[in-house]
Amino acid sequence: MKTCRAISVVGCHAEGEIGDVIIGGVLPPAGATLFEKMRIMERDHDHVRRFLLCEPRGSVCRHVNLLLPAVQSDCQVGVIIMEPTEYVPSSGSNLICVATVILETGIVPMVEPESRLMIETPGGPVRVIADCRDGKCTSVEIENVPAFVDRLDATIEVPGLGTISLDVAYGGMFYALVDATRLGFQVSPDEARDLAITGEKIRVAAREQLTVVHPENPDIRGVTIVQLNRPFVGGGQVNRNTCIVAPGRSDRSPTGTGTCARMAALHARGQMVKGDTLIHESLIGSRFTGCIVKEVNVGGRPAIVPSIRGRAWITGFHQYMLDVDDPYPEGYVLNDTWGVTGKLTQ
Q1: What are the tens digits of pLDDT across the range 109-143?
Q2: Labelling 335: which of 30, 125, 255, 344 has CA 20 to 30 A away?
Q3: Where do the structural domains in the chain lie, given as residue ranges?
């Protein structure tokens, strides 16, 4: 076998959602800031994402995270987060995976019973507190980038569904938050395919009809993910949701940034205050616990600093190769498995 590419990856999942971590074989992209590095990675080196996420090496149910040196001096590592159709400023499940991998493999020394570190994301630095015992991260808490509401009770027209009411909130990416019970769903595992189809229809319509821009970074724009939830039953109670990741499939975890976005919306409605917790449950029954750490402002808008706590598990160590004669150097997708719309970008 003659290879022209070899990439080393640690497999990991956080509460069911795969967030593998690249530890070798990919050089850091250029750029003065981590956000610039992410955009240059997307523009000039997207073959890495396609190589690892598309078939025959990957799948739509996978994310990959590229470790690289942090730009900010107070952070131990930086990370570029690559999802099936986009590069995102921050991601709770992926960061829980990254923290678990770098501590359990010794990339960053583990301290028991508690390891504290900073991870730099394109959206900003994230504080991490990991509970550790016998060389294992038993849980990881992420103090995420600030979350805020863009608008409440917006309406859009969705083909086949009519007029839909939704909230738009930022939790590391922009979410459309929809009460799925108003659409006839219970948000149960047997509805997964129909939820995915519905969520993808809503995402496409929201991107077309709503102008959504981060007030401090205009390059972060547009609704990129849809959260379909049950009505809020109270802080500290279990609240079921599923987030439809483009191009149309349910996040297996409760979704970290989705939990942050929902807490921002609940805070804006007066249903959560500083110190309150939100237990978010996924379709497979896994849970994240979110908390409103403090109240802040982002670009003049009321915002919160949210935290999320969850668990991750390393699943394996992989060396992905590209044979010089392989006719699919960037893989391929078909929409029988690659989500609803079969798209590789937003």
Answers
A1: 999 999 999 999 999 999 999 999 999 999 999 99
A2: 255
A3: 3-144+313-323, 147-308
91 noted as active-site residue? yes
Alpha-carbon torsion 120, 123, 38, 216, what sign? negative
Superfamily of domain 147-308: Diaminopimelate Epimerase; Chain A, domain 1 (3.10.310.10)
Catalytic residue among 91, 93, 250, 253: 91
> By CB neighbour count within 10 A (0-12 exposed, 13-18 middle, 19+ buried), where does 44 fall?
exposed
Neighbours of 109 (CB within 10 A): 10
| Beta-bridge mates of residue 39 | none
In angstroms, rounded to a whole number, what is the distance separating the alpha carbons of residues 327 and 33?
A: 35
Taking only the tens place, the pLDDT of each residue in 177-232 is 999 999 999 999 999 999 999 999 999 999 999 999 999 999 999 999 999 999 99
Q: Could you tell me which CATH class the domain 3-144+313-323 is placed in?
A: alpha beta
* Coil, strand or helix at 43: helix
Angle, alpha carbons 188-190-193 (nearest 5°): 100
- Look up residue 30 and give its two tokens: 């250029």
In this chain, the answer to whether the domains covering 3-144+313-323 and 147-308 adopt an identical fold is yes
Condensed to tens digits (0 to 9), the pLDDT of residues 9-61 reads: 999 999 999 999 999 999 999 999 999 999 999 999 999 999 999 999 999 99
**In 3-state terms, what secondary structure has residue 175?**
strand
